[in-house]
Amino acid sequence: MDEVLRVENLHKRFGLLHVLRGIDLSVHKGETIVILGASGSGKSTLLRCLNFLEMPSEGRITIEGRLVGRETGTPGVMSYGTRELNALRARVGMVFQQFNLFPHMTVEGNVMIGPMKLRGMTEETARTLAHDNLRRVGILEKAREYPARLSGGQQQRVAIARALAMEPTMMLFDEATSALDPELVGEVLLSMRRLSEEGMTMLVVTHELGFAYNVADRVIFLEGGMVHEEGTPQEVLQNPKQERTREFLRSHT
Ligand code: ADP
Ligand code: MG
């Protein structure tokens, strides 16, 4: 089964504000998709719905072939069980702009806590897994340090390792480098690129067009909560069909 994620006619409303207005998306195993769009176009809301940090107002989300939630009487509206969502959140890793590491725990402690608490792993197994994932993002040598002793770029790589330690089926990145000093952006993008090359399935919201161009299999341009344009990086970045995409690209280069 090759399709990791399918999104059908996803809508999200906050009261009267209709933020996502019918998103369709299919993501295959190993794909890296970059999502571009102006501020307020609904990028974060889309990722948050995929991880059920926000409940979709309408639409169907299928993860690894399993439809999430149950149909209600109202067409398109689903209801979700807490247990189901907790299991699912463990399968979908997310990395935010703010790293939110626990300051009172060591780097390895931060990576071990999820597998121990949520997956019932022993401390020993969790430590091995943590070290494997810290190595994956090139920061194993900081395992015993506290987050405050690390640079922002290093902290963000720990946050990536923490998400990876849950052995997710896909990873979501929401402007993971936007809070970093410019000189620290590259190391985080490089870790993300390596992950993509390892075959991780990834949805990446970023304004880093170089990353989109070099790493993405597909680029999606969101506008007003809808997919306004979609294609290969060459198509969308070099030869955009839509005026709104061109305007966005002009303001970001
Ligand atoms: P982006 O990530 O593309 O900048 P967002 O998904 O964060 O966009 O926001 C899209 C729109 O939804 C914005 O108008 C924002 O103010 C609104 N919004 C986001 N989250 C909430 C919320 N929890 N409550 C009300 N409005 C929200
Ligand atoms: Mg956002």
Summarize this, please?
Helices cover 38% and strands 26% of the residues. The protein has 9 helices and 12 strands.
Identify the notable features of this structure and list them briefly.
253 residues; six-stranded mixed β-sheet; 9 helices; 12 strands; globular; binds adenosine-5'-diphosphate; binds magnesium ion
Describe this structure in words.
By secondary structure, the chain is an alpha/beta fold. Helices cover 38% and strands 26% of the residues. It has 9 helices and 12 strands. The chain has helices at 43-50, 82-91, 107-119, 123-136, 152-164, 182-197, 209-215, 233-238, 243-251; strands at residues 3-14, 17-28, 32-37, 58-63, 66-67, 70-71, 78-79, 92-95, 170-174, 202-205, 218-223, 226-231. It has a 6-stranded mixed sheet with strand order 8-9-10-3-11-12, with helices on both faces. Strands 2-1-4-5 form a 4-stranded antiparallel sheet, covered by helices on one side. Helix 3 (107-119) packs across helix 4 and helix 5 runs parallel beside helix 6. The longest helix is centred in the C-terminal third of the chain and has 16 residues, at 182-197. The chain is globular. The N and C termini lie far apart (38 Å). The structure holds adenosine-5'-diphosphate and magnesium ion (MG). The site of magnesium ion has 3 residues, from helix 1.
Ordered list of secondary-structure elements with their pairings:
Elements: E1 3-14, E2 17-28, E3 32-37, H1 43-50, E4 58-63, E5 66-67, E6 70-71, E7 78-79, H2 82-91, E8 92-95, H3 107-119, H4 123-136, H5 152-164, E9 170-174, H6 182-197, E10 202-205, H7 209-215, E11 218-223, E12 226-231, H8 233-238, H9 243-251
Parallel strand pairs: 3-10, 3-11, 8-9, 9-10
Antiparallel strand pairs: 1-2, 1-4, 4-5, 6-7, 11-12
Helix pairs in contact: 3-4, 3-5, 4-5, 5-6
The structure holds adenosine-5'-diphosphate and magnesium ion (MG).
